[in-house]
Structure formats: C-alpha cells, structure tokens
Amino acid sequence: QLVHQCEMMRIEITQKHQQLLDQKAQHEAHTEELQEQLHSVRHQNQVLQFKLNSTLEQHSKELKTAQNANSDQITMLKRKQAEIELLLPSLQVKSADIRNTLLHAHVTDRTYAALAVKPRESLTIKELIQVSLYEYRQPLNKSSRGD
Asked: What is the pLDDT of residues 47-98, one digit of tens each?
C-alpha cells in the first residue's frame, strides 16, 4: 500500500510539475507579449516625443521669425514717426502761411473774370480757391455767372 501511495504521489507530483511547467510557459509567453507591448509603447513614445520636439522647434522658429518681423515693423514705424515729427513743424508753418494767404487774399474782378470763363474741372486748387473766395466775398457776381 505504501508503494501504491508513493506511486500516486509521484503521479500527482508529475501532474503538478506539468501544470507548473504549463503555467511557467503561459507566464513566459504573457511576459514576452507584455515586453513586446512595452517596446511598442516606448517606440510610439519616442516617435511622439520626436514629433512634439519637431513641432515645438518649428513653432519656435515661426514665432521667432514673426517676432523679428514685428520688431522690424516697429522699428520702421518709429523711424517713420520720427521723420513725420521732423516734418511737422515745417508743415505747420506752411499751413499757417496758406491760412494767412487765404484770409488775406484779394481776388480782383479781372482775375475772377479770367478764371470764371474756364470750366471748374480745369482750374487748379489755387484758382478754385480764388474763385470761391471771390464768390463768397462777392455773392452778386456768383449769380451772374450762372452756376
């Protein structure tokens, strides 16, 4: 009976050993599958990291280019503003001179008569102002022109 029990235990141990070998093989296969997935995920991570770095680098270059362009435009605008500010006093003097000339302009009847016969479209700005001033100052002459 002891031999029988030993034989039964040996069979049971053999079965358990086979089960352990099967489990080991399953675990090794599962471990290998997980390692492949891990490798794949790491590779995807590297690819994504590369894409991210590439995109960040590209955006950084574009931003730097845009900043340089904006800086150049600001510099140009500041330069133009300085040029305009330099011209402003002389333009103010010219404007005052023109205003003075217009306020104290005297258009003679002879000048008006020479200008009045020309079509308004052909008059220079100065001539048009002279006609308008004369007509403003001499409303009766305007009605005689027939406008």
From this structure: 999 999 999 999 999 999 999 999 999 999 999 999 999 999 999 988 887 7
Torsion angle, alpha carbons of 58, 62, 68, 74, to 10? -160
Q: Which long-range contacts (CB under 8 A, 24 or more apart) does 136-139 make?
A: 137/107, 138/112
Which position has the token pair 């403003």?
136
| Contact assessment for residue 133 and residue 115, using Cβ atoms and an 8 Å cutoff | no
* Start-to-end C-alpha separation, the chain: 144
Give the tokens for residue 40: 């794949």
Residues near 142 by beta carbon (within 8 Å), at least 6 away in sequence: 135
- In the block, tokens 């995920």 appear at 41
